[in-house]
Automatic annotation (TrEMBL):
Pfam families: DUF624. This is DUF624 domain-containing protein. The chain crosses the membrane at residues 26-49, 76-94, 109-129, 150-167, 173-189. It comes from the Bacteria. Keywords: Membrane, Transmembrane, Transmembrane helix. The keyword Transmembrane applies. InterPro entries: DUF624 (IPR006938).
Length: 198
């Protein structure tokens, strides 16, 4: 019992994980309040979790702020474009669905756009958190990685959808949703990013 509760025990580590996930989720939300900075906040999360998973020393507060500042110029335009396209496509899907089956082809095209954005998003924000690249290089590299490692990309998107659906049934999970998703996706794509660096 003593081993479970000491500083190296699983209970303590689990409590730290829950605390960090909650606080990073809150920091992400605060950083995303202007809406156009959602991409910046997301990249800052990947900045913190990247350090954690690679075994580097980190502080969730100072590293989130540091990551936010470092990626701001690079993440703001790409995050704004992705947010705008996703919002517009989802709006179109709802409107086209109301019009009936005669517009099913157009609705399917909108779903295709959403899927492409989600697949590219798997890598684009982690890349902005670690590399200083031009906008064109970011998009091109994200597309290449997303389709070269399609299994991982689809798995990460599936996890995101599953977590969103879970939150719909358990709204309180929204306090952890983005932080938990970013942690899992960072674990899944870290090896791929290491290969990309090499």
């Amino acid at each position: 019992m003593k081993g479970l509760l000491n500083l190296d025990g699983p209970v303590y580590k689990f409590c730290i994980l829950v605390y960090e996930t909650f606080m990073l989720n809150l920091l992400w939300f605060l950083g995303s309040l202007p809406i156009v900075t959602i991409g910046v906040s997301t990249s800052a999360l990947y900045y913190v979790y990247g350090k954690k998973i690679r075994g580097n020393s980190y502080n969730i507060y100072s590293d989130f702020i540091k990551g936010y500042k470092e990626v701001f110029k690079q993440s703001l335009p790409i995050g704004s474009v992705i947010t705008m396209i996703l919002s517009l496509s989802i709006y179109n899907i709802f409107q086209l669905h109301k019009l009936g089956s005669e517009y099913i082809w157009l609705e399917s095209f909108q779903w295709f756009i959403v899927l492409q954005i989600l697949l590219i998003g798997v890598f684009i924000f982690p890349l902005t958190a670690r590399f200083n690249m031009t906008l064109l290089d970011l998009i091109k590299t994200s597309v290449i990685l997303a389709y070269k490692h399609l299994f991982i990309s689809v798995a990460v998107v599936a996890i995101l959808i599953a977590l969103i659906l879970f939150t719909a049934f358990k709204p309180s999970f929204a306090l952890f949703l983005v932080g938990f998703y970013t942690l899992i996706s960072t674990y899944l794509i870290e090896k791929t990013l290491k290969k990309f660096i090499n």
